Amino acid sequence: MARLSVLDLRGDRSDPRDRLPRPRTDLAAAREAVDATLGAVRDRGDAALRELTARFDGQDVDDLVVPREVLHESLERLDPRLRAALERSIAQVRWYHERCRPLDWEDHLDGVRMGVWHRPVSRAGVYVPGGKAVYPSTVIMTVVPAQVAGVDEIVLCTPPTGTGFTGITSGEHDGWPNRTILATAALLGVDRVVRVGGAQAVAAMAYGTDAVPACDMVVGPGNLYVSLAKQQLAAQGLIGIDGYAGPTEVAIVADHTADPRIVAADLVGQAEHDELVVALLITTEAALVDPVEAALEREVPRARHAERIETALRNQGTVALVDDLDQAVAVAEAFAAEHLEIHTEDAGKVAERVRYAGTTFIGPWTPVSVGDYGAGPNHTLPTSGTARFTGGLTTSSFLVPVNYVEYTEEQLRDFADAVGALAHSEDLPAHARAVDVRFEPPLAEDRSR
């Protein structure tokens, strides 16, 4: 049974964007639901958060803020092997994001002093999903760059979908978030953890409630409702956001050197996230399709989440056949994948040619998994083609660049004529007046004061 549809682009160099796979969603219905959620939280604060948590997560919660003792107990009971893995991931992600921090600069042009200061936002909200999977890695990816940027306070929201200390499949939810998420938050010293999820969490971080202080930035991945809530609240000027981080997607550029087992495993590895995952193979080799399908036939049934993988591959799994690597690069750019893998000869050179991707994973020894779990670059990345104009979460996401300039009297006098000419050309003479008045002697009444 073929799991991937075939899109034959050979001989066709037109823009392929409208033919490349994307998940189908009812945006109108989702926006209507998000509008209702945002209005409820704006108008009724914590009471709305409790009601929405009961409705969507099936949990009746009283105190929304997770107590410190629960955080500390989660860390104390964390499996030592898992803690070591988290600590290694934290160290590597911190190293990478320290190097991503933009530098202040100052210089002089014709003696005029100018430059840029980078100021951290005062309070950042981070969202950590808790639906089909558990994401302590997202705690690291959102909190660490905020800390590196120097943010004063970090608020973390995550739904109460934990099942105690015995694992994610151990039974009914107990009203607290997943204990590994809580342990990771404790390990990083997050200022406040709130057990609320979905669009209502984003609304709380934007508007502010008794339990959730209003934040300047809200970042982190989530479902369609979370992403739409972030976009709408950002459009209102209430929060800054990191971009559109919707359902996961992976594109693999492959030639005759690609190992079909690895290609199949990497498609499956991302498809287990969600039924809406896009898995795209862009290849110059039609002969690669059958071996990849055969490998999928072996891999998918043995996967823990085989059902959601089957759904994702059936609906969005696609092989794009291309004439050559030049066309493969063009198709990869048009898709602008969240995750882009390169399995070709001279993979590094091919990777450099693809201008747009959230993160590029170069060569057969660099699966997306290493990026997911802490190689260094962030795993909160743009999806749905938005990598064409924005990048992933990084230290600079939490920094506001503040431009500054300082003129002396002599320098302003030298520039005054140019300012005047431009001001009058735009019919804004008061702009010119603001310069000219500085060189006029004070009036008698002004001198008397």
Automatic annotation (TrEMBL):
One of its GO terms (biological process) is L-histidine biosynthetic process. The keyword Secreted does not apply. Its EC number is 1.1.1.23. SUPFAM superfamilies: ALDH-like. Zn(2+) binds at residues 270, 273, 372, 431. It comes from the Bacteria. One of its GO terms (cellular component) is cytosol. Substrate binds at residues 248, 270, 273, 339, 372, 426, 431. CDD domains: Histidinol_dh (cd06572). Catalyzes the sequential NAD-dependent oxidations of L-histidinol to L-histidinaldehyde and then to L-histidine. This is Histidinol dehydrogenase. The gene is hisD.
